[in-house]
Design brief:
Protein name (chain A): Sugar ABC transporter permease
Pfam families (chain A): BPD_transp_1
CATH topology of the largest domain in chain B: D-Maltodextrin-Binding Protein, domain 2
CATH class of chain A: Mainly Alpha
Subcellular location (chain A): Cell membrane
CATH architecture of the largest domain in chain B: 3-Layer(aba) Sandwich
Strand content of chain A: under 5%
Order of helices and strands of chain B: HHEHEHEHHHEEHHHHHEHHEEHHHHH
Distance between the termini of chain B: 57 Å
CATH superfamily of the largest domain in chain B: Periplasmic binding protein-like II
Membrane topology (chain A): Multi-pass membrane protein
Largest interface: A-B, 41 and 45 residues
Radius of gyration of chain B: 22 Å
Structural class of chain B: alpha/beta
Strand content of chain B: 5-15%
Number of strands of chain B: 8
Shape of chain A: flat
Number of helices of chain B: 19
Oligomer: heterodimer
Strand order of the largest sheet of chain B: 2-1-3-8-4
Order of helices and strands of chain A: HHHHHHHHHHHHHHHHH
Shape of chain B: globular
Number of domains of chain B: 2
Radius of gyration of chain A: 28 Å
Largest sheet of chain B: 5 strands, mixed
CATH superfamily of chain A: MetI-like
Family (chain A): Belongs to the binding-protein-dependent transport system permease family.
Helix content of chain B: 40-55%
C-alpha cells in the first residue's frame, strides 16, 4: 500500500479563506445578523427618542440652537398651571376613556362571540370606526358638537322639542372634556372589541361544557372561566389602549385645539403647541418627556397583569 | 328678503371663501391709474443657469393663485429663470419655514406671515436695495409694511410685504337699526349697550374666544388695544399685567354674556357660519365672508344688508386693528440670491402686482401707497374699507419690537385664553392677567 500526500498548493485551496472563517465565527455572525435590526432601531427609534430627551434639557427654539439648561424646563413646568391641567386631563381622559372602551368593547366582543346570522358582515362593520382616519372622524365629531349646527341639538330642539336652546358641547370645560372622551371611546371600541373577540375564541368550549354539567350559572361561567382566561389578552390590550389614549393627539387637536380655556389640552397637544406652534422646542420636548413615567406605568401594568397567569391557573404567584 | 336659509346653505357658506374667485378676474380689465416714479432699479446680475423654488400660503381666492402663477411664468419667459411655486396650507407654512431655516436647504424664497422674517432673521439675506427701489417707485411703504419688513430699530429690510388682510366688524344694518343703532358705537359702553340689545332681540353678536389663529387673536388684541393695554412697552418689556388689561378683561366679562353661546370653542370658520345662517348679526371677519354671501344667490340679501366698519377705537386714537401680512423672505442658502431678489422685485412692479391685487377682490390690500389707486378699491363701496389695512400702526407684539416671541404668544393663544378664562368665569381678571404675564415672560426671556 502506498501513501500519497497532497501537495501544499492543494491544501491551501481547500483551506477556507479568512472571510469564510470570519463568518463561521459564531459571535461575529450573531453581531452581523443583528446589525441591520440594531441599525434600524438606532436610526428610527433610539435617535429620535434620544434627541427628544436631549432637547428637553436644552433651551432650543425654532430657528435658534439651544444650550444645555439641565432641569430648567421641568422646573418651569412644575410652576405652570397649564401643564398641571394637561396632566390632570390626560389622566382623566385616559382613565374614563379606557374604562368606557373596555366596558363597551368587552360587552360587544361577548355579543359578537355568539352565533348569529351575518356574523362576518357585522364583525366587519364594527371595525369601521377604527379604519376611518382619525382626522376624518374628528371632523365628523367637530360637526356633531358644533354650537350652532350640531345634529344632536337639531334633534333635541327642532325635532323632539325637548330643549329650547342648542347644547353647548364645546363651549365650557367639563362638557368639552366629556365630549372628547365620548369621541375617543367611539373610536377605540373596535380595537378592544376585535382584540378581545380573538381572545374569546381561543377559550376551549369544553371548559364551558364542563362548567354547565356542574351547574354553573352564566355569571359563574364568566367569572370563573371567561374572565381569568382573558386576563393575559386583557392586560395586553389594556396596555396598548392606555398608551394610545394617553398619547392621543389628533382627536383633541382637530376638535378643540386644547380649548375652551385650555381645559382639554392633553400632554401631547400641549407639547405640540409649545414646541412647534410656539417654537419652544426644548419646553415642548420636556412636556413630551414628562409623559414617559405614565407610559412606563402602563407597561408595568401589563407586565404584572401577565405575571399573574399562574394565579389565574390556580397556582400561587412567584 | 329670504330668511329661510337652510342648514345646508349655512354649512356650505362657512367654507365658501373660494367663491371670491368669481369676482377676481373682472377687476383686472380696468385701465390702470397707478403712478410709478422714474427710479433707477438696482443692478441685480441674475446668476447663470438660475432656477428658483418658492413656497407661499395657499390662495384664499382662486384668482390669487392663477394670476400669481401667470406672473411667475412671465418672469421665466423674460429672464429664463425657472420658478417653481408651491402653495401650502396656512397652518403648515410656519413648520416648513422652520425646517428650511434649520436645515439650510429647501426653497430659495418663502412668503410667510407677518413676523416670520424676524424669527429667521439670521438665515435671511437683506432685501434693502429692492425695498428702497419699489418704495421710491410706488409712493413709499405703508406703516404696517415697514413694521414687518424692516429689522427692529434699523432700516435694513429682511422681508418684502406683499399685502395684508384685515378683520374689521361686519354687521347687519337692518338689525342694528331695529335696536336703535345706525352703526357700531366707538366707545366700550356703547358697544356693550348695542350687544345687550342685540342679545335681547335674539340676534346677538359673536366674537371668537376659542383657539382661533385669526379671529380669536383679532378679538383679544382689539379688546386690549382699545383699552390702551398692550403686550409690550416700546422697550420690549412684558406689560400685559397692567391696570389697562384688567379694565379690558372686566369689559370682556361684561360683554361675553351678550354673545351667542359657544364662542369659547369657536375657530376661524365658526363666525362665518353663524353670520351666514343669520344666527348672529355682528362679528369681525375678513372680506371673504361678505363675498361668499354676495356671490351666492341664496344669501345675496344678507350681503346687501351687511356693512363693514373698522374695529371701534375705544380709548385708542385710531382703530386698533392689525392686518395679517404676507411677507417674502430670501434664504442665505439660496444659490441664486440675485435671481430671487429680481423675482420679488418683478412681482411687486405695477404690471404684475396690480392685476394680482385686483384679482384678490380686496382680500389682500397693498403694502405700497401708489397701489391704493387700484381698481379693486372703487368697485364695491363695502370693500373700500379694506384698502387702508396696511396703514395700521398696530401689529402682533404692539408696542414693542417684533420678535420670535411675539409670534409665539399669538401661536400659543395666550391672550385669547386670558380673555376666555375671564369671560367664562374660570379666572378673575387679576389671576388671568398674572398667568398670561408668566407665560409671556417665558417666551420673552431671551428677546432682550
Amino acid at each position: 500500500m502506498s501513501v500519497t500526500t497532497l501537495s501544499s498548493p492543494v491544501l491551501a485551496q481547500r483551506q477556507p479563506n479568512w472571510l469564510v472563517r470570519l463568518f463561521d465565527y459564531k459571535p461575529f455572525l450573531i453581531v452581523m445578523c443583528l446589525a441591520p435590526a440594531i441599525g434600524l432601531l438606532s436610526v428610527f427609534l433610539t435617535y429620535p427618542l434620544g434627541l427628544g430627551i436631549w432637547l428637553a434639557f436644552t433651551d432650543t427654539t425654532i430657528g435658534r440652537r439651544g444650550v444645555f439648561v439641565g432641569l430648567e424646563n421641568f422646573q418651569y413646568l412644575l410652576t405652570d398651571p397649564l401643564w398641571w391641567n394637561a396632566v390632570f386631563y390626560s389622566v382623566v381622559y385616559t382613565g374614563i376613556a379606557t374604562f368606557g372602551k373596555f366596558a363597551l368593547g368587552f360587552w360587544l366582543a361577548l355579543l359578537l362571540n355568539n352565533h348569529f346570522p351575518f356574523k362576518s358582515i357585522l364583525r366587519a362593520i364594527i371595525l369601521l370606526p377604527w379604519i376611518v382616519p382619525t382626522v376624518l372622524s374628528a371632523l365628523a365629531f367637530w360637526w356633531i358638537y358644533d354650537p350652532q349646527f350640531s345634529i344632536i341639538s337639531y334633534l333635541l330642539v327642532d325635532v323632539l322639542h325637548w330643549r329650547s336652546g342648542n347644547v353647548d358641547f364645546l363651549g365650557s370645560p367639563w362638557p368639552a372634556r366629556f365630549s372628547l372622551i365620548a369621541a375617543n371611546i367611539w373610536r377605540g371600541i373596535p380595537f378592544v372589541a376585535i382584540s378581545l373577540l380573538a381572545g374569546l375564541q381561543t377559550i376551549s368550549p369544553s371548559l364551558y361544557e364542563a362548567a354547565m354539567l356542574d351547574g354553573a350559572s352564566a355569571w359563574q361561567r364568566f367569572r370563573y372561566i371567561t374572565f381569568p382566561m382573558m386576563m393575559p389578552i386583557l392586560a395586553i390590550v389594556m396596555t396598548f389602549s392606555i398608551i394610545f389614549t394617553f398619547t392621543d393627539f389628533q382627536l383633541v387637536y382637530a376638535i378643540t385645539r386644547g380649548g375652551p380655556v385650555n381645559s382639554t389640552h392633553l400632554l401631547a397637544t400641549l407639547a405640540f403647541q409649545r414646541g412647534i406652534a410656539g417654537g419652544e422646542l426644548g419646553e415642548g420636548a420636556a412636556i413630551a418627556v414628562s409623559m414617559i413615567p405614565f407610559l412606563i406605568f402602563a407597561t408595568l401594568f401589563s407586565y404584572f397583569g401577565l405575571a399573574r397567569r399562574k394565579w389565574q391557573q390556580g397556582e400561587a404567584n412567584d | 328678503m329670504r330668511n329661510d336659509i337652510t342648514r345646508r346653505d349655512a354649512l356650505a357658506l362657512g367654507l365658501s371663501a373660494a367663491t371670491l374667485a368669481a369676482t377676481g378676474a373682472a377687476a383686472q380689465t380696468t385701465s390702470s391709474t397707478i403712478k410709478a416714479a422714474d427710479v433707477a432699479a438696482p443692478k441685480l446680475a441674475i446668476e447663470k443657469g438660475a432656477s428658483l423654488r418658492m413656497l407661499r400660503p395657499v390662495r384664499f381666492v382662486q384668482a390669487d393663485e392663477d394670476v400669481f402663477r401667470a406672473n411667475a411664468a412671465k418672469f421665466t419667459k423674460e429672464t429664463g429663470v425657472e420658478v417653481k411655486v408651491d402653495f401650502v396650507g396656512w397652518e403648515d407654512i410656519n413648520q416648513q419655514t422652520a425646517v428650511t431655516s434649520n436645515s439650510g436647504a429647501g426653497p430659495d424664497i418663502i412668503i410667510g406671515f407677518s413676523d416670520a422674517p424676524h424669527i429667521y432673521v439670521d438665515k435671511l439675506i437683506e432685501l434693502t436695495d429692492v425695498a428702497d427701489y419699489v418704495g421710491k417707485r410706488y409712493g413709499g411703504w405703508l406703516p404696517l409694511a415697514q413694521r414687518y419688513g424692516k429689522k427692529n430699530k434699523s432700516d435694513a429690510w429682511i422681508g418684502l410685504p406683499f399685502g395684508a388682510t384685515a378683520g374689521p366688524l361686519i354687521y347687519r344694518k337692518s338689525i342694528l337699526q331695529s335696536v336703535g343703532f345706525d352703526k357700531v358705537p366707538e366707545d366700550h359702553a356703547g358697544i356693550l349697550d348695542l350687544c345687550q340689545k342685540l342679545h335681547k332681540a335674539g340676534k346677538p353678536a359673536g366674537f371668537a374666544l376659542g383657539n382661533a389663529k385669526g379671529d380669536g387673536n383679532g378679538f383679544a388684541n382689539w379688546a386690549l388695544w382699545s383699552h390702551n393695554a398692550s403686550l409690550l412697552d416700546e422697550e420690549g418689556n412684558v406689560v400685559i399685567n397692567s391696570k389697562e388689561t384688567i379694565a379690558a378683561l372686566n369689559w370682556v366679562k361684561q360683554i361675553y354674556p351678550t354673545f351667542i353661546a359657544g364662542t369659547p370653542s369657536w375657530n376661524d370658520v365658526s363666525n362665518n357660519r353663524a353670520y351666514s345662517s343669520q344666527e348672529i348679526s355682528l362679528t369681525a371677519n375678513g372680506v371673504s365672508l361678505y363675498f361668499s354671501l354676495k356671490n351666492d344667490p341664496a344669501t345675496k340679501a344678507i350681503a346687501e344688508d351687511s356693512e363693514h366698519q373698522l374695529l371701534p377705537k375705544g380709548l385708542a386714537k385710531v382703530s386698533p386693528m392689525a392686518g395679517l401680512t404676507l411677507n417674502a423672505m430670501v434664504f442665505k442658502h439660496s444659490q441664486y440670491p440675485n435671481a430671487a431678489k429680481a423675482f420679488l422685485q418683478y412681482m411687486l412692479e405695477k404690471d404684475q402686482y396690480e392685476p394680482w391685487l385686483n384679482a384678490n377682490s380686496g382680500y389682500w390690500s397693498q403694502p405700497l401707497a401708489a397701489y391704493a389707486e387700484a381698481a379693486v378699491w372703487s368697485q364695491d363701496p363695502k370693500v373700500k374699507l379694506f384698502k387702508d389695512t396696511m396703514n395700521s400702526t398696530y401689529y402682533d407684539g404692539y408696542k414693542g419690537p417684533i420678535s420670535t416671541a411675539t409670534g409665539a404668544v399669538s401661536a400659543d393663544y395666550v391672550l385669547i385664553q386670558m380673555c376666555a378664562s375671564v369671560a367664562t368665569g374660570a379666572a378673575t381678571p387679576e389671576a388671568a392677567a398674572a398667568e398670561a404675564e408668566q407665560r409671556c415672560k417665558r417666551y420673552f426671556r431671551r428677546q432682550r
